[in-house]
Amino acid sequence: MLSPSADPARPRAVVLLSGGLDSTTVLAHTIDRGYAAYALTVRYGQRHAYEVEAATRIAARYRVEHRVVEVDLGTIGGSALTADIAVPKDRSPDDLSSGIPVTYVPARNTVLLAVALAWAEALGAADICIGVNAVDYSGYPDCRPEFIAAFERLANIATKAAVEGTTRVRIHAPLIDLTKREIVALGQSLGVDFALTTSCYDPNASGAACGRCDACQIRLKGFADAGVRDPVPYQHASLTPP
After folding, report:
1. Rounded to an integer, what distance in angstroms lies between the CA atom of residue 81 and that of residue 199?
2. What is the pTM of this model?
3. What is the pLDDT tens value at each position of the chain, 242 positions in all?
4. b/e per residue, 90-125, with b = 16+ CB within 10 A?
């Protein structure tokens, strides 16, 4: 059987794959919708680079072509994910839902989508899929519908294929209006193996999640709200499934 990236009868789509719950669900959703998926992971200087290993495992599971591209935003800094800045832990629900946290990486999704756009044009693909979410996240400006719409407009004046009228680029953000509970439910319906994914901003050397950063808190609440046990290992035994 052909892999989802090799079937010539399917339209091609580049899927940004971080190794997290959301991007893995988007990959499964894209394949389910009939696309030939091409997975793109960007090693952007993130301190939690274990996610790149997770993305590699996930791409192998789905048998899709996978590229890892280096764009070192760590040389710019300005974020707890790329610089020597402490990752916030144990923030209250009010704190999680207000302001833009220090884990925001300056222009990250703009850069990631630009790299995805380049590969899509090289592939002759019209579709780019990204797992941004504007409901359960902490106000990241590059996770909003306005940003996705603006980047799509940019893509359609910035590429040879679009200007010549051969390809109109579409940016898909299928999770943007979903709660984390709804994302977990969607992943379940698509058969996503959540044990392959990672969301933690501060995992230990073996990849076990801290259970206390913003990403862990949002993930754990999503699983709890969905009535599903999160299968990934946590540093605190009470959070790790038997």
Report:
1. 12
2. 0.94
3. 446 655 678 999 999 999 999 999 999 999 999 999 999 999 999 988 899 999 999 999 999 999 999 999 999 999 999 999 999 999 988 888 788 899 999 999 999 999 999 999 999 999 999 999 988 656 789 999 999 999 999 999 999 988 998 899 999 999 999 999 999 999 999 999 999 999 999 999 899 999 999 999 999 999 999 999 999 999 987 776 65
4. ebeeeebeeeebbbbbeebbebbbbbbbebbbeeeb
Among 196, 234, 202, 220, smallest CA distance to 24 is for 196
What CATH topology corresponds to 12-239? Rossmann fold (3.40.50)
Q: What is the 3-state secondary structure (H, E, C) of the chain?
A: CCCCCCCCCCCEEEEECCCCHHHHHHHHHHHHCCCEEEEEEEECCCCCCHHHHHHHHHHHHHCCEEEEEECCHHHCCCCCCCCCCCCCECCCHHHHCCCCCCCCCCCHHHHHHHHHHHHHHHHCCCEEECCCCCCCCCCCHHHCHHHHHHHHHHHHHHCHHHHCCCCCCEEECCCCCCCHHHHHHHHHHCCCCHHHCCCCCCCCCCCCECCCEHHHHHHHHHHHHHCCCCCCCECCHHHCCC
Q: Are 200 and 48 in contact (CB under 8 A)?
A: yes
